[in-house]
Write a structure and sequence with these properties.
This protein is α/β, with parallel strands linked by helices and 212 residues long. 52% of the residues lie in helices and 10% in strands. The radius of gyration is 18 Å and the shape is globular. It comes from Alexandrium catenella.
Length: 212
Amino acid sequence: WEYYHFVFQAPKCSTDGDLVQYMPLIDQDKIGILEELDWDYWVRFTRSSIVMLCLQLEQLSRTQRRMVKCVLLVDLKDCAMDNILCSTFDSANDRDVSKVLEEVAAEVISEVFIVNAPWTITKLFNTFRVFIPSKFSAKIRFINGDGLDDPDFLDRVGGEEQLHQLYSTRVGLVSRAKRSIAPSHELDDLPSVREQQQVAKLKERFAEAFTA
């Protein structure tokens, strides 16, 4: 797909038999989806994907005679802030998709692994974790780098060979797109002074939420 790509089901399950999904955010062109696609099409596509996931998990559960869940792998490799935050897209997606996804995800997703996350994103997540439903936020785990040296993580995503295969599917749809909106700077693993200042301002702005 020209504006969105993810691996719905990896060839191998986790060592426990759970389904593995791979979502590289560099392949989620939010601006392209807004500008080029009919929004109803996007909503139908994402909602249908949720239904298909539930059906596939049900089939695997019958085969394995246990409750099979989904391990979601989110890859932030090469992402700029534009890929993470796009207020117009995020607001509409939250209204039409995310609410449904949150309800289902709390039941069918066992873990969410975030890999290749720059410092800024990790820090912002820790800052705003209080706003994420606890039932879902407890499932989220940040992995150091690409996770290839983490044996426990490798077991959960189907092994080292499969992880290499998943990473090789990254297309870079966002980086290939030419938009009228100027791209922001890419996020570094180490924080710049400006990024630290931004995080500090956000903490100050929402101080009441953390002391309540």
